[in-house]
Write a structure and sequence with these properties.
Largest sheet: 8 strands, mixed
Strand order of the largest sheet: 33-34-36-35-37-38-39-40
Strand content: 25-35%
Radius of gyration: 26 Å
Distance between the termini: 44 Å
Structural class: mainly beta
Shape: globular
Number of helices: 9
Helix content: 10-25%
Length: 703
Amino acid sequence: MTIKATKFTPEVLLSAPRRSAAVPNSTGTLALFTVSQYSFDSHSRSYAIKVLDIKSRLSTQLFDDPAYTEPTWVSDTEFVFLKNGESTTSLLVADAAKPGSDPYEITSFNGSVSNIKAKDIGNGTVAFACTAPTTASGELLNEADEKTPRSTGKVYTGLFVRHWDSYVSEYKQGLFYGALKKEGGKFKLQDPGLVNALAGTRLECPVPPFGDANDYDIGKEGLVFVSKDPELNPALWTKTDLYYVPLKTFTESKPPFPQVVKTGELQGYTGVPVFSHSGNKVAFKRMRNKQYESDKWRLLLVPDVKDLSNVQEFYKTADGEGGWDLRPEGIVWSNDDEELYVTAEKEARQILFKLPSSPLKAKELPQPLTEDGAVGDFHNLSKDDHRLFFTSTSLIDNSSYSIIDPQSKEQGLISSSSKEGKSFGLAKRQVDELWFKGAGDYPVHALVMKPSDFDPEKKYPLAFLVHGGPQGAWGHSWSTRWNPAIFAEQGYVAVMPNPTGSTGYGQAFTDAIAQDWGGRPYDDLVECFDFLADHIDYIDTTNAVALGASYGGYMMNWIQGHPLGREFKALVCHDGIFSTMSNWSTEELFFPVHEFGGSLWENRDGYARWDPAAFVAEWATPQLVVHSELDYRLPVSEGLAAFNALQTRGVESRILIFPDENHWVLKPENSLHWHKEVLGWINKYTGLDTTGLSGDTENLRIN
């Protein structure tokens, strides 16, 4: 029987179980995953490692110790995982086929280890790799062993000073390898233990701030990994390169110096290197522009790692634009290495595609295998089965595990955490989409989320949601931060337009926002609002609110000073830019350089042209401002400046500040507070129920 929430509220969203992607074993019989869940009753989080029996579709809890993380297969039933201590990390082994049995320890590392990978390379050897902070000499760093300075002052002579949500330290991430073999029936780490492949190189993997285990791979021929170019200023350039470290046994005490893989005119970000099953080929992706974080990914192949001079590009064209106008994300090789499977965003879906594994054979564009939702991690089901096992989400389902046959496209659901939305009281009928004419001669796409009790004969207030990025998009995917269903279940019809600058509609459409932040994108939003007013009878555009975060927050400040702002009864600006003239307080400086056509002193007019602060004299719509003090991408001064302006002008306004959050509000109690403030604010102005939500501004709690 499905237990159904009486109403999909913020509490339901935030306390729902959160499953990781599931990874099948080599025989396709079991899949490992983790699940965490926050309780607002106990104000604590539970955590478990579980195993899914793929045939019976039943899962079993193996461990519930929150110190146990990153379960990773090392045999058909055995897996390694980490036990995180205060300053050390243990590597443990357990058997998924023996629930309730105790794990045993392989070794303990004198530092904080993460991003583990393991791969059987033959001869009874399992290659093991991980990343960890290192000392200046390349050894594992144990911060407990470091002297604590008496002063808190930080001195810098280069960039970065701070990145994302923390000040940059002198310590870099190292990429370590080792070999596991069974002795007396138990895995043991072979001598010389863990070896840092990056010691003495100035290289770092994973790439901060969001790099993870996808930044490297291990195979029978060694390691491949991604690292920033150490010769370039990391704040001004996006350039990351692929490197190869040849290894035979993974017990080499002195690894060869990493060899860079050169890719000609492609000089931007590099990502997701993946060894073929044979171990001699590597597929990866790379961007062309080295100062543009949202350039198009190109799919590349190294046919033989022993010849790094031969790098081949899929769908290469003479003009350098590439013949496939989508952006490949994840990459998996077929069991026989004859095909590649990749995910790519297309029109608000994250689709799984297949193509030949050689650019010489890839004459036709990749063939789509899925149609809806957002495919995340995916894997070969087993070493002897050509089918794929994948994890996905949708606008109504927070986690699904499925199997698909890439030949027939036959797809079967194995497990849905929310029973395909039923546990939340959500259904596919609530999700819709529309296309409208943009500001120019091009179509623009928008997603629509309706209340679960939607009646087409009624009119509903509008929640107009503007996405961030700006090179991003609303998609058929789940979110615990900006979930359209939360607004729909309050009684709104939520409309999520993907205007100029959005991804998934061709690279030219994405690129067109550069140096035009308040131009075409704003005009597209105006066209969307007008389309809703003229053609969608069930939406009451006279009772509308608009909300946005990051670039969406910038757009809230921009429309405040322009005619569209007067169409809304209230606005919500989360982490938005108040003044583009102060955008050089950010950390990744390549972003404003690209978006505004150069540095502030080279193209001051390019910054001034799209400055929301220049139009503050027109601000009049009630606005909630949300900002966080650990947001170093858009410092908290931007939110304070917007609130100062609103208050000085006498515009109804309210500010919510989180001292302990970054660009995203992630802590459950803070997120609940965020939801209550946001919903309370917009419901107040649209006349919807505010019971249990934050009250009027005079009731603002100060603490």
